[in-house]
Every structure is written in C-alpha cells, then in structure tokens.
Amino acid sequence: MDAQVHKLATETLSRYEALTQELSDPSIFDDQNRYREVAKEHGRMKKGADLSRAYVDAISEAAEAKELIPTADGAEEREFYSEEAREAEARSDELAEEIRTELIDRDPNDDKDVIVEIRAGAGGDEAALFASELQEMYARYADRLGFKHSVLSSSPAEMGGYREVVMEVEGDRAFSFYKHEGGTHRVQRVPKTESQGRIHTSTATVAVLPEAEDVEVEVNQGDLEIDVYRSSGPGGQSVNTTDSAVRITHKPTGLVVTCQNEKSQLQNKEQAMKILKSRLLEREMMERAKEEGAMRLAQVGSGDRSAKIRTYNFPQGRITDHRINHTSHNMEATFAGNLDEFTNALAAAERSEKLAAEANNAAESN
C-alpha cells in the first residue's frame, strides 16, 4: 500500500463528503458566492473522490480476503480467498497510479477555465486567415467537449481573418485540454491569392493562459489607466457610433488590453479586465518559475517560421507535432475540432517526463 496515496485518498474523501453535506444544506443558497465556490470545488473533486473511494474499497477487500485465508475449509477455498486478495491488491495498485496522476502530479492550473490568445505571425494575409482557422478549430474542440466559448477581443485583418483574436473557454478542467496548444503553429499550403501555385509558409502564435480568479490577482484601481474610444473594423471604418471600446493600461507592468467586441462599454471593460488579470497571473507564474520557462514566452517564442511546435502541411495532408515527433493525416478531422489525438499524446509525454524527473530526483537523493 502506498502510504502517500492512501493518506491523500482518505483526505480527499473526507473533503468531498464535507462539500456534499454543505451543498445539501438549503441555507447555502442564501449566499450565492459561497454556493458557486462550493459547487465548483465539489465538481472539480468528483473524479478524484470516485477514484479514492474505489481505492479505499479495494484496500478493504484485499484485507478482508487475507483475513479469511486462515479460516478456509481446504486448499480450494484458501486459493479462492488468495486469488480475491491478489485481484483486489492489483486493482488498488492501478487505482493508486490513477490517483497519483489525478491528485498529486497534476498541474494546479488544470482545473481552471482558459483564455486562448491567437496572433497572426509571419505570412501577411495568409497568416491572418490561418489565425482565424485556428480560432475556429479551438471553438469546435470546445463544442465537442461540451464547453462554453466566446470571443473576448478581436482585431480583424483587412483581407479576412484576424491579426489577433482572444477567446475564453469555460468547462471542467478546460486548461488541461488546451494547455499544450501554446506555441507557434506553421501552415504550408498554396494560398487562394497565389496564381503560380507555389506553396507558402505562414505562422500564427498561440498563448494559452489559465483564467485568473479574483482571489489570485489583486488589481489596484489606481494602477489602471482606462481609455474609451469608438470601435473600428478593418481599414479603420467605424463599427459603433458610441465610445464603447475600452483600452486598459496596467501602469506598473505596461500591459495593455483592448476590447471592442461588445456594444456596451461596461461589457468591454469587464472582458478587458478578465484578460488583464489572466496576463498578470501568467506574469506572476513566470516570475516564480523562470527556471522552468513557463507560459507565453516558452509557448510563443519569436513567432518566426523556424520557431514551431506544429506544422500543418496541406499538400501532403499531414500534421506534425515537433515536440513529440507525432504525425497525423487527419487534417480535416483536426480542423473540425478533433484534437484528442494530439491532446492525449502530449499529456502522455508530459506524464512520462514527470515520472522520469521523479526517478532522477529519487536516484540523486539516495
């Protein structure tokens, strides 16, 4: 029995049962903020609690079967109880590994909603079109997962597509599904505007940020410079006739966020603050983990064609993820939002790296 896993499993069950009891108390609805907090934590813990309950049950079954072995009536019955004990122990070992993955080794940001920022890189008009296709791909992926998604901010390009688009995805462990998408994506194909039939290479950069919760990031209103202006579309034409667009500058860091997608100035301000808080959280995380190289800088790089994590080669119908040397020929399915092939392969690689690091650390400490 893994003592660390057993302790965590019992603690998880205790906490989950306490949350379940709190949710069953009608008075919790008197405080909607508390209700949302408890409901969110309860939902987040369900998988871990289910695994923990199965693990504790398997440990108990193994112990009971072992206790019955000495009282068995004959060799056949002893073997029966011994086999039951072996099966329960094997099941508990498997569950312990799942619990370790779910509760110990998991990225603490995995439970959060996510903000995905996509920017056209090298390649001009074609890069802007590619940025739009990536945004649509991620929206379809969210639809497949049953997640909510919305565009928080966008800057359309004159010939179509986006110079920049920021989207929010809300769902159970949304960040865990999107976090490996951060980096420079490269597309190789013949643009519609290319009369000679030559293959062009364009890029778009993707940054994936865990959405910041209010308790994690405090923003001093005195540190903000807020400007309002009339929103505009491609070519500078006016979209709204009121000053509804919002630009927020965080003076201590120099971070600037603009939002003009909503008709209401208040809504645009709320969207801009959401993005700003996530960028501030990312900045704080980067400062805490510089040696590990976290978030946007590690994900995005320079945006140059050579700094790539994945290549979409249309002439050959091939997608290659360069981080794990994984190649897929499911181009149509991928852009239709079926990213499971890449998500699962990258999650497995992340898990292997963590296990290898744990093994190295254990070897060095001995």
Topology (SSEs and partners):
Elements: H1 3-23, H2 32-68, H3 75-104, E1 114-120, H4 125-145, E2 148-156, E3 162-170, H5 174-178, E4 183-189, E5 200-210, E6 224-229, E7 245-250, E8 255-259, H6 265-288, H7 295-300, E9 310-313, E10 318-321, E11 326-328, H8 331-335, H9 340-365
Parallel strand pairs: 4-9
Antiparallel strand pairs: 1-3, 1-5, 2-3, 4-5, 6-7, 7-8, 9-10, 10-11
Question: Which term fits the overall shape?
Answer: globular
Sketch the topology as an H/E string, one letter per element. Answer: HHHEHEEHEEEEEHHEEEHH
Number of helices: 9
Q: Roughly what fraction of the amino acids lie in strands?
A: 15-25%
How is the largest sheet built, in terms of strand order?
A: 2-3-1-5-4-9-10-11
- Counted beta strands: 11
**Average residue pLDDT:** 85
Task: Count structural domains.
Answer: 2
Percentage of residues in helical conformation: 40-55%
Classification by helices and strands: alpha+beta
Distance between the termini: 22 Å
Q: Which CATH architecture of the largest domain? A: 2-Layer Sandwich
Sheet with the most strands, sense and barrel status: 8 strands, mixed
| CATH topology value of the largest domain | Alpha-Beta Plaits
Instruction: Indicate the radius of gyration in whole angstroms.
Output: 25 Å
- Would you state the CATH class of the largest domain? Alpha Beta
Low-confidence stretches are: 291-297
